[in-house]
Design goal:
Elements lengths: L4 E3 L6 E3 L16 E2 L6 E2 L14 E3 L6 E3 L12 E3 L8 E3 L19
Antiparallel strand pairs: 1-2, 3-4, 5-6, 7-8
Bound molecules: zinc ion (4 copies).
One zinc ion binds next to loops.
């Protein structure tokens, strides 16, 4: 079986098309956008997540531009992810998340401005 590469929509790198996690940027959904809060698949242009209802466009804390909820701000390119403080987990989490989507622990936002 031939492996083929597909572009990660988050970082643009070519990775194995059956990869569950991008090995370049660590995204858990390399080929589609997922809600950072409930992980349901979302589409650019949607106003709110159909799973949890969170708005999918937010104001960037760095540049105050409006950006799609995504690992990086569309306007200034800064990372909007923080790392889960549970050392056994350490998963990247969206800075607005109250709880880690991987381990369920509370998150203290450590986004540095
Ligand atoms: Zn990637
Ligand atoms: Zn959601
Ligand atoms: Zn920004
Ligand atoms: Zn965690």
């Amino acid at each position: 079986m031939a492996f083929y590469k597909q572009q990660c929509i988050h970082c643009g790198q070519l990775i194995d098309s059956d990869a569950r996690v991008c090995n370049k940027c660590g995204s858990p959904s390399p080929f589609y956008y997922s809600c950072p809060t409930c992980l349901l698949e979302i589409n650019i242009g949607d106003a709110a997540c159909s799973g949890c209802g969170r708005p999918l466009y937010i104001t960037c804390p760095f540049c105050s531009g409006v950006t799609f909820v995504h690992a990086n701000c569309e306007k200034c390119g800064k990372s909007l992810m923080v790392q889960c403080q549970n050392h056994r987990c350490n998963q990247p989490q969206f800075f607005e998340n109250q709880k880690c989507t991987a381990c369920g622990k509370k998150i203290r936002s450590t986004l540095s401005k």
